[in-house]
Every structure is written in structure tokens, then in C-alpha cells.
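Deviation from plan, reported transparently: iron/sulfur cluster complex.
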Amino acid sequence: MKEVIHTPVPLVEEEEYHINMGPQHPSTHGVLRLVVTLQGEIVKSLKPHCGYIHRGIEKMCEKDTYPQIIHLTDRIDYLSAHINNHAVCLLVEKALEIEVPERVKYVRTIMDELARIQSHQLWWASFGMDLGGLTCFFYGLRDREKILDIWEETTGARFLQSYYTPGGLLWDIHPNFQKDVKAFIKYFRKKIRDYDNILSGNVIFRERSRNIGLMSKEDAISWGVTGPSGRGSGWSCDVRKHHPYALYDKVDFKEILYTEGDTLARYLVRMDEMRESMNIIEQLIDNIPEGDFTAKMKAVIKLPAGEYYQRVESARGDLGLYCISDGNKTPYRMKFRTPSFSNLSVLDHISRDLKIADLVAIGGSLDLVIPDIDR
Amino acid sequence: MKEFFKYFADIFTGVRSLLIGMSVTGKYFFSPGQIVTQQYPENRKTLKMYDRFKGEVIMPHDENNHHRCTGCAICELNCPNGSIEVISARIDGPDGKKVRIIDQHIYHLGMCTFCSLCVKTCPENALAFGQEFEHAVFDRTVLTKILNQPGSSILKEIA
Ligand code: SF4
Ligand code: SF4
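Because the crystal trials were delayed, the predicted structure below was used instead.
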């Protein structure tokens, strides 16, 4: 019998095609457009197109006084609004060499950690939904609501609080604040076990997220991937540990590090961070000292001419604020080093040669907030 | 052989993890505990916002139609996006001197970002936040409001 010469013919011969993921795609969590080059189902490369929600915040800062800048920083990364406000306040206080009252430091630290918890809750909710677990979305948002209520009572707003002012706080905390926060911690310690039972332990989720989107420590450092995403690759980059501000040098907390560098590791970092944030709050909530809620400030704040830089750890990573002042009441130039922008840049590298369905998981695990990228 | 056992062990742990997850959802299905959903349009009558809730900027008036605003325009200066326009007028005061009073305190709700700077910096505490939050309208000119009520005047103690 004559042997049949069999040459396999690939279905798609070196043919690559592009598809647009976004700007309106549920898994990009905002108006981000990813031009994905595919070969069949395999991601060959990926180009993010930013700018759909660019509002020119850096330019607007140049016409605003320092107290006015605060409300713009809310809108950079809206999920860590308190933390962004904190960065501006710390920058101004550092430049003017103002010591804020102890009470302010306590309240700011607690608020920042609440912001981190609610940001991770929303991320957990939407990450679960991206991977097909709609239940997560409801549970995550149900628990996040409790924090928003606490904020609404004290700051007056649920989302864009603008609660910090240079030198202190806008108002004193509400009399119910301590009681509510303690009730929330008690409540959430129970609920976070549900999170683990539903998603962290789930076999489908674990198999879908393990060993995809591998990012080595070197990658994380060279792309500047900070925050929980960087710590999932074993890079110790927590600003709270390395350059402590507010009360982070007084409280006892661990920097969560995982060395696997895959999507699951980034997930686990955030889950542990929520628990660690609760530990921080518990250490502080009972000890808020009495005192003023704001330091004495001049009515018109003018920074001495010079350059200033301030870093804080937002829920997404290292937020840097660079400010040049020429001695006026508005900055000469304000530049935000936002974490999501650098975290997005690594997406191309870590999602190559994976399936497009994995891209959704990887993108979700980087926890991108699009206004944070575009500003 | 080891592979063989691992295969079945994986199936067993997999099914177990699914059952654990289902037990959580099942628990909430049968005993939801506290109902968190608000029946919003129906509960309008009982819905109470928190005292500090920032719904809109208002100028509180007392029962004699007096407000506290002197027309100093500090709020206008502090507003980051020009949501406030203060139009003041000069009238003859009791001792013959001209005094400044507020003519119109115009507030553009549609532009306001609720940064609270106007309320915070007003030297007379003439402004406050209102609780009203249903601001959806068909015509945006409705969102431009004049905060001092017609015929109102400044409180005697301040003037
Ligand atoms: S509301 Fe207050 S700040 Fe504004 S003009 Fe009146 S008194 Fe001045
Ligand atoms: S709350 Fe802020 S944006 Fe709104 S009117 Fe007052 S100063 Fe302007």
C-alpha cells in the first residue's frame, strides 16, 4: 500500500488579525481600548490605546490652589479617593513643615485602610464576575456598601469624599464613626470567609488563574508594577513599609508577599491585604486621641519655590505626586505618577501566547482603574 | 500509580470545593438574613439621608426670611469650577454710608463637584448642604439656582 504523505495544514496560516477589546467591554472596567493581535485564539501582542477618559487633571491643577486640587485627585483613582487626597495633603504639609495633630493622623490612616478594603472588595466582586461568578459581584458590593455608609455619615459623600484638607480634615469624625467601623470589622471578618469559600477555594477559579500571566520579580521591577500586583511577584514595594507616612511606622502590619507571580498570587495578595487592613484599623480605632481635627493653616496656602515629591500607597500601588512650585498659590506644574498606568504597560508582556480568555483574567488581576491611567 | 491516585484525589477536592461554595450560596438563598436592597422609589417617604449628606448647596433662611450672607464673594473665589456667582449691590446704610448687600447668589448645581470649599470657607456660615438628591431634570437651566430667597435680607446681628 502506498504511503499517504500527510502534511498538516494549519487552519490559520500565519494569519494574524486584530480585534478591539473595548472601549466598551465589560472586562476592561472602563473605557480602555486594547487592540489585540490574535492568531486563532492565541494572543500574539496587544496594544493599549489610552485617552478615552483624559480630563487634563494635571493641567487643571496648574490653575487651582492647593485646597482646590484635592477634589481633582478624588477623580484620578476614584476607588482610593481618600488615599489620593492624602498624597496632596502630605505634599503640602511637607513643603510647609506643618505637623498635623495626632487625631488627624489616626483618622487618616483608618480612612485610608477603609478605602483599601472597599477597593479590594469591588475588585474581588468584579474579578469574580469577569471569570463567570456573578454571585461574587453581589456579595462584594453588599459588603462594600457598609463602608460607603460609614463614609457618607462622616464625610457626606459616598464616593468622591474630598475629606482631607491640607493640615487636617474637613470636619471632625461623626460620633458614630468608631462604633460603626468596629461593627463593620466584626461583620467583615465573618464575610471574608465566604469570599474564600466561594472563590479562593473554587477548583474552576484556581485552575483558570494558576500559572497564567506569569510575571517575574525582574519584570515587575523593570515595568514598575507596584502595589498588590508587584507584590504578587515577590517584589517588596509597599510604600507604607519603606517610606512610612501617617501612622504606618507605629502600627504593626505585614507586607503581603507571594512569589509565584501568576494571576492567583496577585489575587491572594489582595485577599490577605484586606485582612491586614482590618488588623491595622483594629489597632487604631479604639485609640483615636482627642484634639483638633485640623492644624492652624493660613487662609492662602503658598508653597515655597522648589520641587516636591510625595509617595503614598494607594490601593493599586505607588502613587507619586511631583510638584514644582514657583512660590505662588497655584503649582507651576503638577505630575501624577499613577500606578495603573505602569501596571497596564506590563499587560502585553505577560499575556503573550495565552488564550484570549486568559487575557480577561490577567487584566482583572492587575486591577486597572481607567481614569487612573488617563487622568 | 501515583498519577492515578492524584487524578481521583483532584476530582474529589474539586467537587468538595464546589460543594463548599454552593453551601454558601445555599445558605443565603434559604436564610438571607438582613435584606440589603432598598426599594428606592417606593420608600421615598421614609428615606432619610445622613445629616452631612452633600446633596446640593443651600443658603438656610430663618423664619423671618433672613440669611447670613454678606456678599463678600469668598465662596466664589474658592469654588474651583465657577459654580458660584455672587452679584452684590450697594445700598444706603442707616448711617448714610453705602453698604454692600447680596443681590443674587447664583449657584450652578450642574457644575458643582461637591468639594465643600464654599461651605467650609464662608466666614459667616451662610451656606450649608441640603439633603435633596433627585436632581435629574430635562432642562439644565433648571439647575441654575438663586440661593437667596426673594425679599430676603441679612440677619441683623451680622450686618
Ligand atoms: S455665602 Fe458666605 S462666602 Fe459667599 S458671599 Fe455670602 S457670606 Fe461671602
Ligand atoms: S461645593 Fe465646591 S464646586 Fe460646589 S459650589 Fe461649593 S465650592 Fe463650588
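The mean pLDDT of chain A is 86. We consider this an acceptable substitute for the interim report.
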